[in-house]
């Protein structure tokens, strides 16, 4: 496999397609087959990018044992070697502990969402499972919202930040947070999301002025609980 950054590829559309117009399922199936065969310990990146669970993903990618055997017979190199020698620009997320939709016990039909790109403000929005609602919690304690930045040439998803002054959380580029502690959180399944810097909790309050009548706030912890959809088992990421 080679990366050809200056190549040009053209695709002439047929006037009538001999296959189903909804190719989302088949695109996911092909992506998961490639990940399971070739990506070794990095295959979780594909599941994260599609925002689907690694266990029971809802896509039957079939039996890949024959393809794995072929790879072994050909003595193909590891995906780690590929990243180090062919495509070092790819951004990796092997420190991710958990990812997916994040819901609050007070508003279960709504998910944490990155909101408008230029707003730098997290919001609650009806859950839809798209990339704007992809949340990742890392071993370091970062909570990042939005689509993965697949290469170092593209912007990465932003960090959720509690600056200790504002009543609402901010979204900032992780590297632009002046005090790194402001971007660190404690979070366990069905528990609160707590800023390590301020001790305040990310919570939801009713508000007539907010979209859907719900607003994210930073305040003294009141016992609200959060859940996240997918956990990466040790040894699988």
UniProtKB/TrEMBL annotation:
Single Gene Ontology MF annotation: carbohydrate binding
UniProt-listed InterPro entries: Nucleotide-diphossugar_trans, Ricin_B-like_lectins, Ricin_B_lectin
Gene3D superfamilies, alphabetized: 2.80.10.50, Spore Coat Polysaccharide Biosynthesis Protein SpsA, Chain A
Keyword annotations of the record: Disulfide bond, Lectin
Record has Cell membrane as a keyword: no
Signal peptide as annotated in the record: none
GO biological process: protein O-linked glycosylation
Pfam (any one): Ricin_B_lectin
Any one annotated GO CC term: Golgi apparatus
Domain of life: Eukaryota
Domain Ricin B lectin, chain residue ranges per copy: 99-229
Protein name per its UniProtKB record: Polypeptide N-acetylgalactosaminyltransferase 9
Taxonomic lineage: Eukaryota, Metazoa, Chordata, Craniata, Vertebrata
């Amino acid at each position: 496999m080679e990366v050809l950054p200056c190549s040009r590829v053209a695709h002439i559309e047929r006037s009538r397609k001999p296959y189903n117009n909804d190719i989302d399922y088949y695109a996911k199936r092909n992506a998961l087959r490639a990940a399971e065969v070739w990506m070794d310990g990095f295959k979780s990146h594909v599941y994260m990018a599609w925002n689907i669970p690694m266990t029971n993903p809802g896509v039957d990618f079939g039996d890949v044992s024959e393809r794995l055997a072929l790879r072994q017979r050909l003595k193909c190199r590891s995906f780690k070697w590929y990243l180090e020698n062919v495509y070092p620009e790819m951004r990796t997320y092997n420190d991710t502990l958990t990812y997916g939709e994040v819901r609050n016990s007070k508003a279960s039909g709504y998910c944490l969402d990155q909101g408008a790109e230029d707003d730098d403000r997290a919001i609650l929005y009806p859950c839809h499972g798209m990339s704007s609602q992809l949340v990742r919690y890392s071993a370091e304690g970062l909570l990042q919202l939005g689509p993965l930045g697949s290469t170092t040439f593209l912007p990465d998803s932003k960090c959720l930040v509690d600056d200790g002054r504002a009543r609402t959380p901010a979204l900032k580029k992780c590297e632009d947070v002046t005090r790194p502690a402001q971007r660190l959180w404690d979070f366990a399944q069905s528990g609160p999301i707590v800023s390590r810097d301020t001790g305040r909790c990310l919570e939801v309050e009713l508000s007539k002025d907010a979209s859907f009548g719900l607003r994210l706030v930073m305040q003294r912890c009141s016992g609200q609980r959060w859940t996240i959809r997918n956990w990466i088992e040790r040894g699988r990421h």
